[in-house]
């Protein structure tokens, strides 16, 4: 993780030494110091030991037992987070957190903060992740090869988690483009791309990346990430009307891993059974997802699903009760907007001026801004329907064009206009 050249340069400048000053103290040439700082030459362990003493930079000292131990702990923490071993990650965090920040340990502190950002996402602590985000964005453009790549990946995952697919795409594509040699062998980035493509309705691309990641994780028996890959594959099946196969795969995961609860899988089963019109089973799993979900943001999405199921059963009082519960959590802006739309539909107020204004000026622009074009098109369909009922066919057509082919939109609105004329 540590960039030797940049670290030496940082500490040299903090001591107000020129390259010539440092070279003289080490009895070396200026050009050698320049090559080391630019990454063209790697100093010997003995020379690093001398530099660390001169610059008061213990993290550079290869003979420092304390820093080697801490570096080992950080590496173990990163591996535990990557494999989603929450218990082990928690234990290592408790062991290390009191040691940070470390004076005169720039790279070690940087590594710690990067892993802490990953850890906050593992723990679904989005407040902490948001607090660390500006630092991570800075790291993504200033760190060296390996940590910069990791930084871009994890920022991409953060944006997927908060449903900002435009920013997620930017950082994941940057990691893929700038570090192709890493991406081609990395199941983690492929998994995140599979998530992104699923969320943006690119199901064939999602399938390709999820299958690649699954093969890689199966080779190392990484059960937590195997489950994540299988969930994406099942979600893609559902979106392609293969709900029976999705159900079998999801139930098989629950059978294979009975020792823990999987709220996201319960939610997917709820969606699948709803698509199969088995509403009681859908309700059973959706409510189970709510019960076991610890992350407030994810819980709101499960609450929305439950409200949708009750609406489909025409139990509007229960649907509204769940809508109010979801709104009271004040989390997950995407699903707060969806809860509002559902509430307005149930109250038959979807066409009121206030609701239309909110759809046009707040909700639709939000979904476009974050790149959630699936949700944006759903809003367009709602608005097109509202304007069609009001016989404002030009506006209805304008919104419909954002969803379907122009000719289809024009034909449909012309048909509606003719129908209104008798």
How would you sum up this structure in a few lines?
The protein is 77% helix and 0% strand.
Please explain how this structure is put together.
The protein is mainly alpha-helical. Among the domains are: 4-63, Orthogonal Bundle (434 Repressor (Amino-terminal Domain)); 241-347, Tetratricopeptide repeat domain (Serine Threonine Protein Phosphatase 5, Tetratricopeptide repeat, Alpha Horseshoe); 349-422. It has 24 helices and no strands. The protein has helices spanning 4-14, 19-26, 30-37, 45-55, 65-82, 86-96, 106-122, 126-142, 145-161, 165-178, 180-183, 187-199, 203-219, 223-239, 243-256, 263-275, 279-292, 296-312, 316-328, 333-346, 353-369, 373-389, 393-401, 406-420. It is elongated, with a radius of gyration of 27 Å. The model has no long low-confidence stretch (mean pLDDT 90).
